[in-house]
């Protein structure tokens, strides 16, 4: 059920209308059921993984706070994934997924073993030395979450080269690799789960003591599939204290959804037409088309993901919840550090707080700081996908971060103050050019395609007629976005125009509605669903 589907625009109002009529406890149960339904519409099989993460992190969070649960309760809740899997034939009919492949035998076996194994580990850790219990439960949470993520996302990434290496040595293992399907949203809710356990360990958050409330928090449908990645001290309290309906929340929620639809349907999906053509391996590129293609993809991925985040924030706001801002004019950044403070803010801050700073941050001298930056960006690239091109993308951005720290002219450009000198527009243009080069690594399927794109930059012999009309098409869908951002620049919020006179706001709303309703391109999947 995508945010841009007709099903969602029946689903969300229905949930919101029922939600505000219920007492608080009933709302939590409704959110849990709605979230599982929303996720199950993608692939009901993988709700078993979400239930597994829920069981692990619920009990580990309590244990980190030194609160023990009876083994019987641990075992009962740990059985929920197995119960879900056992009832999957019935669920296939409910979610109309009769074509989905049944579970493999090894998954059935793992589901049967998990409740017993997890309960035994839980009891054993409570019997370990008191001084190490909290750290042990933290490691249990982190390692199990990373193991699940690593298996489903990176198994083939590492297993395929290993088999190829064995073949070169003349050894055939005699078995084939299993076909691993990447569960939607696993990267996002895994990182949110890890943040929950770590923040409890650091004393920055309190554990959720009610399992239903915790399950609703972890599976909250507006931000479940592709973020924002919320911190427990921001989102958990909103599940504890009853929320009150206000017209302000309603107005802001509708405005967020409208702007998000504009970014996704009008900007991203139309830019995708040019980006897909330019980055099709069958396309013979020349320099103008190479540049048009990467520019189109830059605005496609921005409109796609920032649009998703806006719709997520708007959907949550209709239910009284406030999600974190995830984008703030990223293409106007003056340097790479500022770019990552503006682009996918919740993921960038996650890597900063849970990878870069624990590694050492900037506490151990320049050389180590640069090394930690490189490692962090490599991991961020790998997070985006099990592919060498994403590793190259992360390495490229790590290199840019290093250059802006060690090359004085670049450092001065990134520190230019707004409105006071020529350096500001130059720094923004240069950083945007670097970002676009990075998008080449991100969008290409392999190294040979990357080389072909850079090679095309030397070919300016093509006929002008082949790219002038596509350039007009691109401008038609980028300029309205830039005008919208100019209107919201003063508020430092991409969807905030209350500072404008009401006639101007009315015109903006009308234009947004018209562009969304008349867009010729539809049904383009959100890019970040694959991550």
User: For the residues shown, what is the average pLDDT?
Assistant: 86
Distinct helical segment count? 23
Structural class by sheet pairing and helices = mainly alpha
Count of spatially separate domains: 2
- Helix percent reads over 70%
The unreliable regions are none
Rough shape? Answer: globular
Number of strands: 0
Order of helices and strands: HHHHHHHHHHHHHHHHHHHHHHH
Distance between the termini: 17 Å
Write the layout of secondary structure elements.
Blueprint: H1 8-19, H2 24-43, H3 47-64, H4 71-78, H5 80-86, H6 88-94, H7 105-126, H8 130-168, H9 186-202, H10 211-218, H11 221-224, H12 232-240, H13 247-278, H14 287-318, H15 336-340, H16 345-359, H17 366-384, H18 388-406, H19 408-414, H20 423-443, H21 447-456, H22 465-488, H23 502-518
Describe this protein with a few key phrases.
single chain, 531 residues, mainly alpha, 2 domains
């Amino acid at each position: 059920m995508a945010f841009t589907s007709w099903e969602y625009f029946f689903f969300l109002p229905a949930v919101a209308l029922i939600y505000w009529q219920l007492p608080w406890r009933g709302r939590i149960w409704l959110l849990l059921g709605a979230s599982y339904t929303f996720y199950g519409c993608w692939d009901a099989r993988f709700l078993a993984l979400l239930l597994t993460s829920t069981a692990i992190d619920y009990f580990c969070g309590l244990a980190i706070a030194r609160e023990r649960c009876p083994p019987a309760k641990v075992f009962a809740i740990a059985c929920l994934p197995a119960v879900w899997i056992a009832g999957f034939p019935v669920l296939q009919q409910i979610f109309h997924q009769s074509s989905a492949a049944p579970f493999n035998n090894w998954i059935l076996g793992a589901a049967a073993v998990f409740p017993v194994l997890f309960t035994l580990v839980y009891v054993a850790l409570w019997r370990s030395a008191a001084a190490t219990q909290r750290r042990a439960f933290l490691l249990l949470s982190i390692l199990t979450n990373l193991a699940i993520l690593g298996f489903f996302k990176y198994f083939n990434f590492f297993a395929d080269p290993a088999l190829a290496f064995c073949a070169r040595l003349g050894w055939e293992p005699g078995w084939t690799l299993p076909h691993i399907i990447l569960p939607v949203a696993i990267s996002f809710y895994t990182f949110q789960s890890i943040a929950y356990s770590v923040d409890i360990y650091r004393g920055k958050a309190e554990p959720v003591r009610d399992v239903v409330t915790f399950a609703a928090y972890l599976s909250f449908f507006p931000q479940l599939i592709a973020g924002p990645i919320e911190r427990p001290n921001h989102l958990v309290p909103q599940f504890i204290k009853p929320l009150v309906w206000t017209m302000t929340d309603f107005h802001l929620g509708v405005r967020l959804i409208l702007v998000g639809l504009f970014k996704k349907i009008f900007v991203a999906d139309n830019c995708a037409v040019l980006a897909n053509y330019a980055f099709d391996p069958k396309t013979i590129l020349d320099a103008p088309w190479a540049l048009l293609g990467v520019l189109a993809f830059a605005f496609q991925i921005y409109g796609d993901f920032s649009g998703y985040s806006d719709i997520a924030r708007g959907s949550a706001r209709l239910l009284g919840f406030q999600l974190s801002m995830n984008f703030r004019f990223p293409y106007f950044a003056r340097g790479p550090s500022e770019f990552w403070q503006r682009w996918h803010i919740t993921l960038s801050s996650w890597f900063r707080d849970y990878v870069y700073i624990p590694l050492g941050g900037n506490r151990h001298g320049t050389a180590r700081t640069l090394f930690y930056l490189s490692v962090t960006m490599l991991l961020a690239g790998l997070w985006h996908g099990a592919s060498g091109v994403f590793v190259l993308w992360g390495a490229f951005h790590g290199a840019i971060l290093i250059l802006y720290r060690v090359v004085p002219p670049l450092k001065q450009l990134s520190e230019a103050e707004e409105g006071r000198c020529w350096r500001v527009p130059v720094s923004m243009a240069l950083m945007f050019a670097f970002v676009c080069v990075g998008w080449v690594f991100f969008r290409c399927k392999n190294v040979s395609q990357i080389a072909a794109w850079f090679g095309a930059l030397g070919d300016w012999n093509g006929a002008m007629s082949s790219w002038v009309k596509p350039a007009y098409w691109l401008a038609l869908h980028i300029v309205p976005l830039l005008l919208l951002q100019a209107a919201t620049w003063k508020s430092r919020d991409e969807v905030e125009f209350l500072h404008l006179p009401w006639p101007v706001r009315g015109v903006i709303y009308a234009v947004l509605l018209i562009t969304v309703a008349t867009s010729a391109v539809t049904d383009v999947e959100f890019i970040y669903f694959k991550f």
